Amino acid sequence: MKNQNIYKVDAHLLRVFLKVCELHSVSRAADVFDLNQSTVSNMMDRLRQAVGFRLFEKVGRNIVPTEDAKDLIPRAARIVSAIEGLPEAGTYDPSQDSRPITIVGNLNSMLGVLQCIQDAVRAECPSRHVRFLELGSRDQLEERLEDGNVDFAISVRTPRYPPSLSAHLLFEDRSVVYFDGKMRSAPTTRAEYFRSGHGVLDFGGYVRSTVDNDVRGLQAHRRIVCSASNASVLAHMIAGTDLLASMPSHLRLNVFKSLSWAPLPLSPNTTLKFDLLWHKRNANSSRHKWIKNIILEADTQGATQAILD
């Protein structure tokens, strides 16, 4: 006989379950939804009774999903996305939509790509308002896309995205090393690179950059002497010094154009993958499908003039 408790499962219950899985904490998930911890605990107990297996186990101070719960996560995410996308399913007329298209990202780091996207949207619908906002740390991706006022995010790929988000490759690049050619020559060896002082972007999050991961893989470290949360500010801080900045090659066309650049003297020099991200609740939204198709069909890779070899 079918477990009748399964009919008591709703989208909100599954959303809370997904958040507990992501944060490994009932209390932190409760804070996100402005609920009492006991309420979330009771909700997880209801879900456990409905599915018929244990959802979490204790590991240190945190909880982690059981193997059965891990199998449930993608199915729960699909159900939540389908339900949340119902209100916007159907036909879409962009000329009748007054809402701005809102994209978040670290804007100074992708100026050419943003111009390409804006041109592509205007070619399809000249009156559409395209709004670009700063993202900050990649740790904030889910929080920003949970906001109903944000449509898409553009970010360097992370090892793992929250289960509520979908991603599609937008363009690729590699890092090069920037420096003031009036103050120093290009570093040609690893030893010279690691002896030098470095400036980096710092958005205050916990996700390491691709270059940091490459350096870590070499069991080395960079001597960081300055940091900024804005690529234009970082370029200004590098100018007039003997410091280095390891950044995507496409920045040589705009914010780093006053500096010299050279190949990054590291192996590996991992390819930077920039993704377009959106919340899965919009999977069935005809509006989001229209915007996404325009962005993905735009020549964003060509706009970067990235150096991939």
Automatic annotation (TrEMBL):
<dbReference type="GO" id="GO:0003700">
    <property type="term" value="F:DNA-binding transcription factor activity"/>
</dbReference>
<dbReference type="InterPro" id="IPR036388">
    <property type="entry name" value="WH-like_DNA-bd_sf"/>
</dbReference>
<comment type="similarity">
    <text>Belongs to the LysR transcriptional regulatory family.</text>
</comment>
<keyword id="KW-0238">DNA-binding</keyword>
<keyword id="KW-0804">Transcription</keyword>
<keyword id="KW-0805">Transcription regulation</keyword>
<dbReference type="Pfam" id="PF03466">
    <property type="entry name" value="LysR_substrate"/>
</dbReference>
<dbReference type="GO" id="GO:0003677">
    <property type="term" value="F:DNA binding"/>
</dbReference>
<dbReference type="InterPro" id="IPR036390">
    <property type="entry name" value="WH_DNA-bd_sf"/>
</dbReference>
<dbReference type="InterPro" id="IPR037402">
    <property type="entry name" value="YidZ_PBP2"/>
</dbReference>
<feature type="domain" description="HTH lysR-type">
    <location>
        <begin position="9"/>
        <end position="66"/>
    </location>
</feature>
<dbReference type="InterPro" id="IPR005119">
    <property type="entry name" value="LysR_subst-bd"/>
</dbReference>
<dbReference type="InterPro" id="IPR000847">
    <property type="entry name" value="LysR_HTH_N"/>
</dbReference>
<dbReference type="Pfam" id="PF00126">
    <property type="entry name" value="HTH_1"/>
</dbReference>
<dbReference type="InterPro" id="IPR050389">
    <property type="entry name" value="LysR-type_TF"/>
</dbReference>
<protein>
    <submittedName>
        <fullName>DNA-binding transcriptional regulator, LysR family</fullName>
    </submittedName>
</protein>
